[in-house]
Write a structure and sequence with these properties.
Layout lengths: L1 E13 L2 E12 L3 E5 L6 H9 L6 E6 L2 E5 L2 E2 L2 H4 L2 E3 L11 H6 L7 H4 L2 H14 L15 H13 L5 E5 L7 H22 L2 E6 L2 H7 L2 E6 L2 E6 L1 H6 L5 H7 L2
Parallel strand pairs: 3-9, 3-10, 7-8, 8-9
Antiparallel strand pairs: 1-2, 1-4, 4-5, 5-6, 10-11
Helix pairs in contact: 5-6
Length: 250
């Protein structure tokens, strides 16, 4: 079953100058898909179109059976029900850890759905997933970079989204913390995918991240899918040309 389907999706900022030429991509429920490629290949633009932060030029985006873009539909980000973790953490300095994590539950349609008790329970569950429950009352300036990234991850998980989007989430961490967070995100996905069927779409230029964590890798070249497959398939049978050259650079 496809959790996320892109059909003929494209993005151009000028006539006939495509950042992403029309492409098709089906992301299976419960999978961990890494969008991998060099800077400027269109992977973040593709992620932002899925999130609703960037408007496609053409095509269709479906979440399960629901069209969120196409045929006159363009659901805003807050109505897509997706979780998102940014490269810059994007935690609010004037809010505690718990307030940061609970913020998505206090805006839009979700404000009526979650009262104080259910919100507190959801925040506690999200913090426990990233091992931050003991730091709920701290402020961001009292946290390390790795802890702030865990707060951002918990905020993305608090709504129990069907799809979690991550845009280069580890690039601001040092090598030791990156290795630690790779293990944690991989294990987190394994637990939540089995319990909830949650899907992850993960943008990275780091081959190690993609091959260590993902169940599927999509390598992008100038907005096109150069190769798609499991880490083992791509490692053992890289397509000649761009993919082979890109993988040999690291």
């Amino acid at each position: 079953m496809s959790r996320l389907t892109l059909k003929g999706i494209s993005k151009s900022f000028a006539k006939d100058r495509y950042v992403i030429p029309p492409l098709d991509l089906a992301v299976a429920q419960g999978s961990f898909v890494a969008l991998l490629g060099p800077s400027g290949c269109g992977k973040t633009t593709l992620l932002r179109m899925v999130a609703g932060l960037e408007v496609p030029t053409a095509g269709e985006i479906r979440l399960g059976d629901r069209v969120v873009y196409g045929d006159g539909v363009n659901s805003p980000p807050e109505r897509r029900g997706l979780g998102m973790v940014f490269q810059s953490y994007a935690v609010w300095p004037h809010m505690t850890v718990a307030q940061n994590v609970g913020y998505p539950l206090r805006v839009g349609d979700r404000k009526a759905k979650y009262d104080a008790t259910t919100r507190e329970e959801a925040v506690g569950e999200a913090l426990s997933l990233v091992h931050m429950e003991d730091l709920a009352h701290r402020y961001p300036h009292q946290l390390s970079g790795g802890q702030q990234q865990r707060v951002a991850l918990a905020r993305g998980l608090v709504m129990k989204p069907p799809v979690l989007l991550l845009d280069e989430p580890l690039s601001n961490l040092d090598a030791r913390l990156r290795a630690e967070m790779r293990r944690e995100i991989r294990e987190l996905h394994r637990r939540i995918a089995s319990e909830r069927g949650m899907t992850i779409l993960y943008v990275t230029h780091d081959q190690r991240e993609a091959f260590e964590m993902a169940t599927q890798i999509v390598i992008l070249e100038a907005g096109r899918i150069a190769q798609q497959g499991t880490p083992e398939e791509i490692r053992t049978e890289p397509k000649p040309g761009f993919v082979t050259e890109f993988l040999s650079e690291h």
